[in-house]
Amino acid sequence: MASSLDDYEQLASLLLPAGVRDFVAGGSGSETTLRRNRSALDAVTVTPRVLTGVSSPDPSTRLLGTPAAMPVAVAPMAYQQLVHPDGELALARAAAHAGIPYVISTLSSRPLEKIAAEATTWFQLYWLRDRSMVESLIDRAEQAGCAALMVTVDVPVMGRRLRDVRNSFQLPAEVVAANLVGARTEAHVGVAGASAVATHTASAFEPSLSWNDLEWIRRRCRLPLVVKGILDPRDARCAAEAGAEAVVVSNHGGRQLDGAPASIDALAAVVEVANCEVLLDSGVRSGTDVLRALALGASGVLIGRPLLWAMAVDAAAEALGLLTAELTQAMMLAGCATVADVAELTTGRA
Amino acid sequence: MASSLDDYEQLASLLLPAGVRDFVAGGSGSETTLRRNRSALDAVTVTPRVLTGVSSPDPSTRLLGTPAAMPVAVAPMAYQQLVHPDGELALARAAAHAGIPYVISTLSSRPLEKIAAEATTWFQLYWLRDRSMVESLIDRAEQAGCAALMVTVDVPVMGRRLRDVRNSFQLPAEVVAANLVGARTEAHVGVAGASAVATHTASAFEPSLSWNDLEWIRRRCRLPLVVKGILDPRDARCAAEAGAEAVVVSNHGGRQLDGAPASIDALAAVVEVANCEVLLDSGVRSGTDVLRALALGASGVLIGRPLLWAMAVDAAAEALGLLTAELTQAMMLAGCATVADVAELTTGRA
Amino acid sequence: MASSLDDYEQLASLLLPAGVRDFVAGGSGSETTLRRNRSALDAVTVTPRVLTGVSSPDPSTRLLGTPAAMPVAVAPMAYQQLVHPDGELALARAAAHAGIPYVISTLSSRPLEKIAAEATTWFQLYWLRDRSMVESLIDRAEQAGCAALMVTVDVPVMGRRLRDVRNSFQLPAEVVAANLVGARTEAHVGVAGASAVATHTASAFEPSLSWNDLEWIRRRCRLPLVVKGILDPRDARCAAEAGAEAVVVSNHGGRQLDGAPASIDALAAVVEVANCEVLLDSGVRSGTDVLRALALGASGVLIGRPLLWAMAVDAAAEALGLLTAELTQAMMLAGCATVADVAELTTGRA
Amino acid sequence: MASSLDDYEQLASLLLPAGVRDFVAGGSGSETTLRRNRSALDAVTVTPRVLTGVSSPDPSTRLLGTPAAMPVAVAPMAYQQLVHPDGELALARAAAHAGIPYVISTLSSRPLEKIAAEATTWFQLYWLRDRSMVESLIDRAEQAGCAALMVTVDVPVMGRRLRDVRNSFQLPAEVVAANLVGARTEAHVGVAGASAVATHTASAFEPSLSWNDLEWIRRRCRLPLVVKGILDPRDARCAAEAGAEAVVVSNHGGRQLDGAPASIDALAAVVEVANCEVLLDSGVRSGTDVLRALALGASGVLIGRPLLWAMAVDAAAEALGLLTAELTQAMMLAGCATVADVAELTTGRA
Ligand SMILES: Cc1cc2nc3c(=O)[nH]c(=O)nc-3n(C[C@H](O)[C@H](O)[C@H](O)COP(=O)(O)O)c2cc1C
Ligand SMILES: Cc1cc2nc3c(=O)[nH]c(=O)nc-3n(C[C@H](O)[C@H](O)[C@H](O)COP(=O)(O)O)c2cc1C
Ligand SMILES: Cc1cc2nc3c(=O)[nH]c(=O)nc-3n(C[C@H](O)[C@H](O)[C@H](O)COP(=O)(O)O)c2cc1C
Ligand SMILES: Cc1cc2nc3c(=O)[nH]c(=O)nc-3n(C[C@H](O)[C@H](O)[C@H](O)COP(=O)(O)O)c2cc1C
């Protein structure tokens, strides 16, 4: 049994093929941003309050209008069957069990409808070159009952992830992009010295999106709209103007532009100007990290890799339970009865 | 023979069971705050003065009105019999020998009256769910001649200390909470993957205290009142308003909210607003550290773990003698005749 | 096949004699500045923009009026035959292939005319004691079709490079300063505990140059003039006043004054006051590094050692291709269509 | 042959007894200040100037009116016979050879008159409890032709140097305090767990000096007066008011108050207020370090340990030659013709 979310990485590493482990763990370039996500979070101090009369803190909240047992959603992550035979279904069930939203990736290895049946979900959209496919995905997500649409804007092309390049990483035959027509793709064709997943992305994704396209989506789709992958406050303002209900301050877990700031370091400036809800991801690993993000102004966080590691050892629900417990306890120790109280805490940098 | 307080940890580690060693040494979560306590103290520079005509500095002072041979008190620490058969008695004797106050923990493994007979003591109060027990403890402390009441406010629940969780740490049968009715408790019942001490705390402590409760104590108790576990200046002000004579700026030695600031980093802001005496603990390991805290505005410090390590090798008095010598020498080298002079030194961060 | 420019150092180290490897890799003194070049670049964050509608970024630009397929030129580096039998010809061909300028060192091991025939080149001038040789070099560069004259001003004497001193480094007989009369020099005569290359430089270079000399060159030479080796903004201003079209902010790859600032840290202040184009070198190793320099105001960079390592394994063209790909991708991920857009990105220090 | 001053420590460590090596190398307490002396110097950047027309920089200067071939004096260091049979004579000869002042320690192992015969010297005074001895030392120094009197004020007692404590360090019989009556002292009597040298100092030195005593010296002695061991700008002002011609910003090489700032970090504030010459020591190891100190406002530096290491391998003159070469070259690379030019360079912190 794990005693912290970090433990799952160790445990999963014993089981997973090295290529898969690296695909999940890796970042882009020299992984500067990947490492900085952690060092920046570690440097944030949160000053607890005392004697506030809290007996049992309530970590529940609403994220984008969706009720959530804690201010955490499962980050959209592609191809979850890589780490567990049940793929997305397993992790969605764990999210449902924990009472938090699960974000379905465009590149899920199970059909979005199947996943949406398991939990409160949001649908994450990658913009495909084929606009009719985009329309179809949005419609399917609405019909499947997804509660929000999350448009990921930081992947015009995939970041250069050297681990995958060195491993000539490709998807195993049984893991497919289940939502796409022609699910077997370049992602399954190994090329020495290249990432097949990146090759597929390059051919399938539309790289040249603009705010006009986002407005088009805004008109096209009734669901609350979240723009994922914002770091510059100017873009946060654009997102709100284009009609987004929320942005996710994110560097994609250090997987896109190496050299981008840690998302926790970018958060406060975005919160200051954004006229919308602000979520954060990239590097969150504990209840204390959630507290840090909330204290710096986020309304919630997405959490990615730790849940894949946990899932690999059949412990995703346990991991989310642990995170809930950690956050509840951190709130207790910080004297916060509610998620709103956390925003009143003083933060610093050590 | 040890030449610095840090040496005792090495020496004691050879003797103590691993579970006990970890219980004493450990912090909560990923131990960020535990480590930062040291790195932050190490970063504080104190600029010495010269030719001040000091021939033999006098480290003596008053802490909360109690005369003290140096501006140091022994921090309240539970279950001292874990490290020495005489438990609290041994460490209280060493404090008496060194001429400094000894703080008796609510969770002492010897009855508070026995300990109070050995030294000038203060009594540390954890708020138990059973308010009649709280009243009884306060009364007993007053009657036993304790010179102050220290209310610890940073343990609504115990921090998640992963070492204890991983060790499934429980108290040995012979070590009990001697001041409590029903001294044998959940703390003695091992549970795999959990800290029995934390379980006991959760069931015994009242988590939802407020400033009203502190005011109730203030009315109930004639002794000088100290609030231990303050990091936010707003809380220091509340404490003084509620009638406390002093606060202890403390993160509980990095054992409660992981991610809290180092207490030395929180000190100056508290000193600035507090209308009362300000003590500090968490990480103090040498005469230079005492000097750092005084130069930043504390009137004194509490010292914890090093004295348990020393006690484990029957050297608590020696350790306090060493600390006195170090502080006296540091004052000498800084050109300070008295404890008050130290507050005039310039500090910096390296 | 390498997946990042850093890989070439490992690969080349297997092939090159230790003395040559150290001559290339080393810096001066305790190599503080050498290390800082990297740590300072790593600390620069660049905040990407999103949804800018870029489909295929164009990294092409003009450097000093010379068209360049990306804002990168090959730094002038002496004696390239040390790492490859074709010497400068091989690297110039790679530059031509990549569509970027190649800077010919005064100390090239092939005659400048031969090199200039292979690529768009600039000529780097070291000031020799014999002024008629300087005149002749300038004339030869003009006649050979070099497109700019780069005067290196940070080598009045060679920095004390301890690796070369410890290796008693000397040039092998077949590697000569092909542009100089009497190409076989002190650089070929080993002296225990000394760098023969430094000895040669000391005897051949004129150490006491002044801005008057630069003005003399300005009058003497029709080509665009670049002053290489500027760190102080006051000197950047002098350079522009003396008629230079550009300066290179550079600490010579940490090989001259140990203790000098990282060039990336010196860049912004130079850009602010310089009335001319500003290039940068020293430590650039990736597309992200180029982005960092551009975002901080450089119009381009020079890149040195990585190309020698790549050349040693016959992969200089590959390396430049990789760099182009990295930069294009970094621009894409940062939402930049053109090199000019990069200057609008926000930078920070982590 | 060494290629940097640091090399001598390695070389000497092979020869010297461990106790002596530690006595020389060690600092006080946890050696925080000792380490910081280096890390702070390493962090200082100096921005070179170019094209200043310097052909051969002149490092010569005057220190306290004494002509010096470079802005460096040999720091006063006790008991030099510990590392070389000729003791102080050997190092004084090296200083004379290098053309720089040698500072004779009160605790020299050869009589001050013998040392003064070998070089331009200053005399360093420790205040002995026996004031008649102090008077006699001052008179002897004047008569022996010492050119300045340096009063060390940061040793009211010796810092607690744990290496010496752990080694129970004592002087070998043949090494004595040759200037003192009763040269064989407590310093020769080993006590387990104590430094015999510290014990001797405690009994011989007068701890309670004040500015009045300095004024007394000022009246008593015709030589230029230097106060060594200043870190607080307020003390620098006092020193000038008491009639000192100079102060040495120094933390005694990290051997006195552990936790004191690095002397290079304390320098600028002292320079700003001091109405006198300002020297610096503690951690200087290279020509670049000298440049750093001068650029931050010192008129010169003292250098300690590296010369003992060099002396131990009969290379003190070589070491000083190396330092002169390094400084001359650093000046050249920074574009400085004279020591005064160095003060115009821009400094920063990396
Ligand atoms: C294996 C993996 C796959 C991912 N797939 C997607 C995806 O399909 N869509 C998306 O928007 N983000 C994707 N991400 C990024 C995550 O949504 C999230 O931004 C990131 O993982 C957060 O950082 P963390 O893993 O440090 O918590 C993926 C991340 C990983 C690790
Ligand atoms: C083993 C142990 C037991 C402790 N028990 C108590 C306690 O019963 N009551 C309390 O207020 N603090 C307790 N503390 C916290 C200490 O009073 C003090 O805040 C902390 O140890 C100071 O940090 P230091 O150990 O780094 O000096 C305990 C600390 C340790 C290490
Ligand atoms: C082996 C070597 C030889 C060099 N020779 C010259 C030269 O002849 N002329 C010159 O101006 N700079 C010379 N330099 C400095 C480079 O032009 C450039 O400033 C430096 O290498 C940039 O740093 P980088 O290697 O970290 O990219 C040389 C550098 C190296 C590593
Ligand atoms: C072995 C040793 C002996 C010393 N003895 C004296 C002394 O007798 N008087 C004095 O003023 N300083 C003494 N010092 C301090 C030096 O003068 C000087 O402040 C210090 O060594 C400078 O730092 P550095 O060794 O890092 O260059 C001594 C230092 C050492 C290392």
Describe the structure.
Chains A, B, C, D: Its cofactor is FMN. Chains A, B, C, D: InterPro entries: Aldolase_TIM, Alpha-hydoxy_acid_DH_FMN, FMN-dep_DH, FMN_HAD, FMN_hydac_DH_AS. Four copies of one chain form a homotetramer. Chain A is an alpha/beta fold. Chain A has a single domain (6-349), classed as Alpha-Beta Barrel (TIM Barrel), CATH 3.20.20. The first copy, chain A, is 41% helix and 13% strand. Chain A has 15 helices and twelve strands. Chain A has helices at residues 5-15, 18-25, 32-43, 88-98, 112-116, 131-143, 162-167, 196-204, 211-220, 233-241, 263-273, 287-295, 305-312, 316-334, 339-342, and strands at 44-47, 61-63, 66-68, 72-74, 102-104, 121-125, 149-152, 225-230, 246-249, 277-280, 300-303, 346-349. In chain A, the strands form three sheets. An eight-stranded parallel sheet of chain A has the order 4-11-10-9-8-7-6-5. In chain A, strands 1-12 form a two-stranded antiparallel ribbon. In chain A, strands 2-3 form a two-stranded antiparallel ribbon. In chain A, helix 1 crosses helix 13 and helix 12 packs across helix 14. Chain A is globular, with a radius of gyration of 19 Å. Chains in contact: A-B, A-C, B-D, C-D. Chains A and B meet through strand 1, helix 12 and helix 14 of A and helix 3, helix 7, helix 9, strand 8 and helix 10 of B. Bound molecules: flavin mononucleotide (4 copies). One flavin mononucleotide binds at residues 24, 75-78, 105, 107, 124, 152, 228, 250, 252-253, 281-284, 302-305 of chain C.
